[in-house]
Amino acid sequence: MMLNHALFTTLRQAWQSRPATERLRLGIGGGISLALAGYLLIQHIDLPTWQGAEPPRLIDTHVLEALPPVMTMDADAWRQGALRHSLVLETIESDADGWRLTGRTDTLAAFEQFSAWSARQGWWALDWSISRDDEASLMIEARYVAQLEREPAATVERATP
User: Residues in the chain with pLDDT < 50?
Assistant: First the structure.
C-alpha cells in the first residue's frame, strides 16, 4: 500500500512540475486517445460474427426465385378475386405505384385470404387500414404493389474487415 502511495505522489509531482500549456496539451491528447481507443473497441465488439469463408448475403437468390411472377391485373380481375374471398370492392384505382382498393367485408379472415391470393398473383399489400363500419362489417382500404418490379434490388454490401 505504501508503494502505491509513493508512486502516485511521484507521478503527481512530475505532472505538477510540467508547464501549464504542456499539461493542457497532454490532457487534450490523452482525452482524444482515450476516445479513439473507445471507438475502436466499440467497432470491434459490434462486428458481425459469422462462420465460414464469406459473410452471409443480404439477398438470398433462391428466396427471390421462389416468389410468384407478377400477373397483369385490371379492375375486373381485382373485383373477381375479391368476390371469391367475400370482399366487396367499392373503389379500384390504378396509379404509378400499384392499386388502391377500398371495400367491405364481414370478417378479417376474408381480407387476409384476399391478401394471400393477391400475393400469389405477385401483388403485395403494402399499406392497409381496417375499421369497423357498423356492427356487422369492416371497411377495408389497401394499397397493393408489385414492389420487386418497381424498385431495383439493393446491392449486396460486404462487411469491412
Answer: 149-156
